[in-house]
Write a structure and sequence with these properties.
162 residues; mainly alpha; Four Helix Bundle (Hemerythrin (Met), subunit A); 0% strand; elongated
Length: 162
């Protein structure tokens, strides 16, 4: 297993982890259950670690695909730039989650405030990292590109175009 394999496997963790952590946070806020908040913070911290691994293996993945015919170097660069913003956003979420863990363990009056702040940040980070994933997918998955032609004809009857 090389960096490309690790990159392709781990990139899904921060995407799904950030939104899953947000949903668990919503549930914890709604039920006023500190153990659920702690679980959400742990999911978000793991997602931030996954983002770090994904970013760290990105260069190796780039070296693997950049010489393949039909691969757009501009897509790779756009994905890499977006990945940096994703990493920064998830590091912030991870750090705020660490503080949220501490506040929640202390059963502080700030528990709900930190949960709400973390929720907002995790949803924002999800949007950023989902875009990064979309851009990364376009590198090899041409079916999600902007110039994809649908097999359904203009009449919409489901017959394939020739």
């Amino acid at each position: 297993m090389n960096q490309t394999h690790i990159h392709l496997i781990i990139t899904h963790l921060p995407i799904f982890g950030s939104v899953l952590g947000a949903f668990v946070l919503i549930h914890g806020i709604w039920t006023k259950n500190n153990m659920t908040l702690i679980a959400a913070y742990n999911v978000l911290i793991i997602s931030a670690l996954g983002a770090g691994i994904a970013y760290g293996t990105g260069e190796g993945a780039e070296e693997t695909v950049e010489h393949i015919q039909g691969i757009s170097k501009s897509l790779i660069e756009e994905h890499a730039e977006s990945a940096l913003f994703s990493l920064i956003s998830l590091i912030i979420v991870g750090l705020v989650s660490l503080v949220g863990l501490f506040v929640t363990f202390r059963n502080s009056a700030l528990t709900k405030l930190f949960a709400l702040i973390t929720l907002f940040l995790s949803l924002a980070a999800f949007g950023i990292i989902a875009r990064t994933g979309y851009l990364g997918g376009q590198i090899r998955h041409t079916e999600i590109g902007k110039n994809t032609v649908s097999p359904i004809n203009k009449a919409g009857n489901g017959e394939e175009n020739d």
